[in-house]
Amino acid sequence: MKKNFSFIESFRCAFRGIVYIFKTERNFKFHVMFSLLVLLCSLIFNLSYIELSIILIMIVIVLVLEIINTIIENIMDFLCKDYNLNIKIIKDMSSGAVLVSAFISVIVGLLIFIPKILVIVGD
């Protein structure tokens, strides 16, 4: 496989990778759709730049970990076609990293949005 010498070609390859993950990975689609919903809520609740920055950082962490999880799973499947307990543990740990980041993201989102919702509801 030859190396991309063009910045534009490298960008195209990266974009194709993201499109591939979006098309093939159900969990990545879920994270993207949920992220879009959170960003819509961010606009509705008029978050500060700091709050929006925190939300964006959490979204990126979850999406990047989901991509890394997909990469790890694909590499493990490529290296070992048969069932292997060690491979299963590696894949489970990789999925666990995504789960932890998603869980913490939900907590961060609640910490940002609940006070704003309470103001609207009226305590």
Automatic annotation (TrEMBL):
Entry keyword annotation includes rRNA-binding: no
- Record keywords: Kinase included? yes
The cofactors required by this protein are: Mg(2+)
Q: Which residues cross the membrane?
A: 30-49, 55-76, 97-121
GO CC list: plasma membrane
Q: Which residues bind substrate per the record?
A: E66, S95
Q: Which UniProt keywords apply?
A: ATP-binding, Cell membrane, Kinase, Lipid biosynthesis, Lipid metabolism, Magnesium, Membrane, Metal-binding, Nucleotide-binding, Phospholipid biosynthesis, Phospholipid metabolism, Transferase, Transmembrane, Transmembrane helix
> Subcellular localization, per the record?
Cell membrane
Q: Which GO terms describe its molecular function?
A: ATP binding; kinase activity; metal ion binding
Name recorded for this polypeptide: Prokaryotic diacylglycerol kinase
Species in which this protein is naturally found: Parvimonas micra ATCC 33270
